[in-house]
């Protein structure tokens, strides 16, 4: 196989990963801007984030609806994508989705300059959110299909790009708030930023056919790509950076090679050319899939619907204005990304351990903890954790556990099935990921009503 010159293919998939989650992150990070528009305030006199100490009013239950109408299309089109790939070429699905997302974001940016009553603005914004996430689901599913033919390193780079999308959106929000310009210019600059990101994603995808490394893997069958990985491991057995590997490395790599070759040599194993049974694969990974659903159910039930309503308990000032963008969105995305990165160093607990479901269920404690933080718009529950330090501590643990457990379950599922069943396992896990997001978005309405 040719080399990835200057890591151009890796950089391209990193940027494509960033582009797939930019829409979702830019919408939820801009929740304060939308709330200000929906209470009928004039853009020319209101900053992108309200300086009112109690926080902007959540008119139209915007937090909940933007989450639900983002995740339901994701679930639906994740299912539809399994049929679309048979009748619509991959290039059309990927480029068409990117161009549609770009146009819809351009519309969102244009609406910043348009004075509009709250009702029509809410309807147009929700329709835009729905369509953008529908195209994002097709885009993400198609790119994951391409990554299945490439070395696993590129999947890691793609996921890292997705993890950094939230950090990118939070930093863009902070820069727009700190710029000192009027609210319209600040909001316009904020929404133009993802348009630039999507344009870069389009350019990266168009460059892939011109790179030998990408052509080699994307034009070949998965079995040929796997054979190439075996050849690479065989080369590693012969020498490392110093020319001689230590014995532990040699034993580990030899076992790895033997395990990967074993399914082909066993006559009783199903052939790779045969179609794997979805039901059989589900029986093997059902517990891991259930854990993934529960992780995202907890996360989306409170983030951002509840966490975006938490305000600082300190006196009004700069800190209270920047508290939520920093302590909610930026902190969540940084710790979530760190949590996902931890699985590059260790996978604990393993696929046979019953400790994983316990850890996943313990995350349900975050729901009451966040609901009892400093949320001014409440009528039923008391405030037991008014200090900012409580919310920051809860958010640190909440975010890093989300990132780690999501990445862990996605890594463990392929290890529970035979090599020729991994593509089906990946598709099933993608479906359950979307199912967990939708369940959490639906529950957010209930939890907000309980406040």
Automatic annotation (TrEMBL):
SUPFAM superfamilies membership: MFS general substrate transporter
Catalytic activity, reaction form: hypoxanthine(out) = hypoxanthine(in); adenosine(in) = adenosine(out); guanine(out) = guanine(in); adenine(out) = adenine(in)
Lipid bilayer topology: Multi-pass membrane protein
GO cellular component: a single term: apical plasma membrane
A Pfam family the protein falls into: Nucleoside_tran
Keyword annotations from UniProtKB, A to Z: Cell membrane, Glycoprotein, Membrane, Phosphoprotein, Transmembrane, Transmembrane helix, Transport
GO BP annotations, alphabetical order: adenosine transport; hypoxanthine transport; inosine transport; neurotransmitter uptake; thymine transport
PANTHER family: EQUILIBRATIVE NUCLEOSIDE TRANSPORTER, EQUILIBRATIVE NUCLEOSIDE TRANSPORTER 2
Function recorded in the entry: Bidirectional uniporter involved in the facilitative transport of nucleosides and nucleobases, and contributes to maintaining their cellular homeostasis. Functions as a Na(+)-independent, passive transporter. Involved in the transport of nucleosides such as inosine, adenosine, uridine, thymidine, cytidine and guanosine. Also able to transport purine nucleobases (hypoxanthine, adenine, guanine) and pyrimidine nucleobases (thymine, uracil). Involved in nucleoside transport at basolateral membrane of kidney cells, allowing liver absorption of nucleoside metabolites.
Protein's recorded name: Equilibrative nucleoside transporter 2
Organism: Mandrillus leucophaeus (Drill)
Higher taxonomy: Eukaryota, Metazoa, Chordata, Craniata, Vertebrata
């Amino acid at each position: 196989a040719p080399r990835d010159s200057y890591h151009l293919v890796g950089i391209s998939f990193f940027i494509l990963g960033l582009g797939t989650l930019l829409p979702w992150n830019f919408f939820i990070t801009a929740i304060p801007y939308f709330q200000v528009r929906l209470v009928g305030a004039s853009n020319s006199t209101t900053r992108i984030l309200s300086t009112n100490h109690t926080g902007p009013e959540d008119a139209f239950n915007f937090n909940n609806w933007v989450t639900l109408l983002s995740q339901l299309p994701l679930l639906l089109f994740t299912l539809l994508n399994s049929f679309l790939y048979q009748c619509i070429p991959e290039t059309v699905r990927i480029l068409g989705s990117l161009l549609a997302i770009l146009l819809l974001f351009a519309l969102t940016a244009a609406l910043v300059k348009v004075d509009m009553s709250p009702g029509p603005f809410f309807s147009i914004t929700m329709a835009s959110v729905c369509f953008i996430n529908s195209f994002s689901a097709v885009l993400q599913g198609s790119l994951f299909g391409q990554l299945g033919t490439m070395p696993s390193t590129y999947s890691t780079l793609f996921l890292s790009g997705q993890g950094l999308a939230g950090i990118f959106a939070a930093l863009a929000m902070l820069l727009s708030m700190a710029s000192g310009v009027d609210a319209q210019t600040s909001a316009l600059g904020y929404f133009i930023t993802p348009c630039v990101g999507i344009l870069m994603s389009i350019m990266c995808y168009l460059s892939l056919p011109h790179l030998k490394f990408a052509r080699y893997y994307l034009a070949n069958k998965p079995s040929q790509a796997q054979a190439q990985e075996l050849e690479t491991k065989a080369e590693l057995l012969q020498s490392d950076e110093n020319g001689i590997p230590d014995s532990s490395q040699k034993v580990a790599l030899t076992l790895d090679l033997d395990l990967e070759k074993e399914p082909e040599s066993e006559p009783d194993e199903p052939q790779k050319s045969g179609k794997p049974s979805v039901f059989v694969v589900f029986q093997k990974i059902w517990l891991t899939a259930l854990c993934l659903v529960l992780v995202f159910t907890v996360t989306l039930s409170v983030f951002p619907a509840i966490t975006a309503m938490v305000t600082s308990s300190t006196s009004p000032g700069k800190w209270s204005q920047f508290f939520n963008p920093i302590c909610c969105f930026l902190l969540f995305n940084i710790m979530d990304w760190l949590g996902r990165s931890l699985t590059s160093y260790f996978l604990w607990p393993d696929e046979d351990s019953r400790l994983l479901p316990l850890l996943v269920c313990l995350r349900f404690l975050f729901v009451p903890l966040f609901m009892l933080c400093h949320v001014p718009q409440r009528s039923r529950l008391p405030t037991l954790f008014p200090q900012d330090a409580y919310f920051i501590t809860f958010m640190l643990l909440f975010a890093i556990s989300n990132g780690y457990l999501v990445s862990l379950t996605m890594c463990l599922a392929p290890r529970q099935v035979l090599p020729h069943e991994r593509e089906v396992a990946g598709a099933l896990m993608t479906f359950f990921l979307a199912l967990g997001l939708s369940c959490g978005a639906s529950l957010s309405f209930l939890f907000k009503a309980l406040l």
